[in-house]
Amino acid sequence: MPWTKITSGHYQRPIGENESFIKFIGDSGHVHHRDNWSIAATASFKPRSSLFDQDSSALLRRAWMILRFYHPSIAATATEQMVDYHCVSDAGQLDHWADETFITHVDKSSTPQQIISKLQPSRYATVHYLPHSFQVILHLSHWRTDGVGALQLLDAFLKAVISALHQDVTTLAWGEEWQRLTLSVEEILDLPMTASSEILDASSKFIATLANTKCALGTPYRGDNQTVPGGTQSVRIRLSALTTQTLIDACNRLGICLTSAVHAAIAATNFLIAPVERVEKGKEQHHTSTLRVNVREYLPAPYNTSDYAAGLYTGGYMVKVSDPQNWLENARLYEQKYRQGATCEFLQSRRQYALTVKSLLQTRQPENQQPPSSGLDISSVGDAGVHVQASYGSGDAGLDVCSVSLGVEVLARNMYCFMWTFCNQLEFNLVYNEAFYDRQFLENVLDTLQSVLKENCI
What is the DSSP letter of 311? Predict the structure, then answer.
């Protein structure tokens, strides 16, 4: 159901099943003052000479207001049943929202990692600005968007920085911005409220892949069932342009994409680091990870464009591999799955899948007598340069993007390796919770991942 006018300036629609499912996961972190799986998208940039003649914080704050005008869903709020949006009625209301959601960190010792490790739930999307290092962090609940969408919003924000040099935000047509609010994936795909037998079968097919997580290889975490999660941390590396191109050329010769190659290296790495004491003797060992699908590419226009960045249009299912020695065979399996993308079955199952998995999570019994699950997973957005430009503006009135990064809030014992290329360089951001792992171990994991990738590709 599309947005409905409730009162003057107040619009509402039912929350989508996928949004509700992901919000349930996010809200599970509130007991720890965290937004589980919330997304942090970061950009470091270098302003050109005349761009910041004025106060940079004030400029970026205006840009944040402009972003809301074009992507109003960053200011929508959600309950268990509904998503609500209140249009901007006057400058005072816009200022109040910006005061709550635009945060400047004036401490020159602040780093993005320190800030991300302390992020707390927010009813709106927020932006954190570090003026001393020209870095911005977009923090978004995962029910609000996905990895690709977060990068597209980062791009829109940096474009808005240039616009804010000359644009008066008070002259924008506030009150009409609700027309750009995003819809749920179920609404866009026009999925029926009552599942047919074909949809139930398709949903069951993807839900069945969750069984692949049973007895899957874990990772050597610290603590036990009672250990309370701490802050989210990450270890990040960037390969040279030469090494990246060499890997891409090797993948092309093998008939696989870079993401498939890295995915197979992730699996091989998990076999190498799996804790021996938690391996069940006599049983075939397997690595299970998520095969993520960018649903945006399969949506009809205009929902497949960056105009709908602030929407949740992603999905996935679990894939397992059992032979750590056959890297190429595993890579080709992942390649086959990635090339399949979002099949008709996958798209048609989106509503029922989310309903069923959320129900399973709600009724799941605590694993007090079982070792907590863990593992090494992967998430790829491919070429981030497709979504975020390397430069904005023209002449001196512009900025150049030095780097981008992507990660999520992690409260479990899983480690997530985010990968992307930007400016012809492959980058990894390995995200983990500080209560369960130390940084040195994660650095070793990334070193192993690099070695496996290079040994098998080059």
Answer: S
> What is the predicted pLDDT for the residue at 379?
98
pLDDT in tens, 352-392: 999 999 999 999 866 655 788 999 999 999 999 999 999 99
Give the three-state DSSP class for 63: helix
* Contact (Cβ atoms closer than 8 angstroms) between residue 46 and residue 402: yes
How distant, in Å, are the alpha carbons of 108, 280, 336, 379, 442 from that of 273? 37, 15, 26, 19, 11
DSSP code at position 103: E
Q: List Cα–Cα distances, 339 to 55, 204, 332, 343, in angstroms.
A: 47, 21, 10, 10
Chain centroid, CA 164 distance in Å: 27
Cα–Cα distance, 237 to 224 (Å, whole number): 30
What secondary structure, in 3-state letters, does 156-189 show?
HHHHHHHHCCCCCHHHCCCCCHHHHCCCCHHHHC
Q: Report whether pLDDT(51) > 80.
A: no
Cα gap 18→185, rounded to integer Å: 8
CB neighbour list of residue 16: distance below 8 Å, 6 or more residues apart: 183, 184, 185, 186, 187, 312, 351, 354
**Rounded Cα–Cα distance for residues 184 and 193 (Å):** 13
The angle formed by the CA atoms of residues 389, 391 and 393, to the nearest 5 degrees, is: 115
Asked if residue 277 has pLDDT above 90, the reply is no
Main-chain phi, psi angles of 407, to 5 degrees = -165, 175
337-346 average pLDDT score: 97
- List C-alpha distances in Å: 95 to 128, 170, 451: 16, 11, 50
pLDDT of 280 above 90: no
Q: What DSSP state is assigned to residue 82?
A: E
Tokens of 86: 């209140």
Three-state SS for 27?
helix
What mean pLDDT, rounded, does the chain reach? 95
Q: What is the pLDDT of residues 129-182, one digit of tens each?
A: 999 999 999 999 999 999 999 999 999 999 999 999 999 999 999 999 999 999
| Residue 325 confidence (pLDDT) | 78
Q: What are phi and psi of 377, to 5 degrees?
A: -120, 175
Domains for the chain: give ranges and CATH numbers. Answer: 4-186 (3.30.559.10), 192-399+412-457 (3.30.559.30)
Q: What is the pLDDT of residue 1?
A: 61
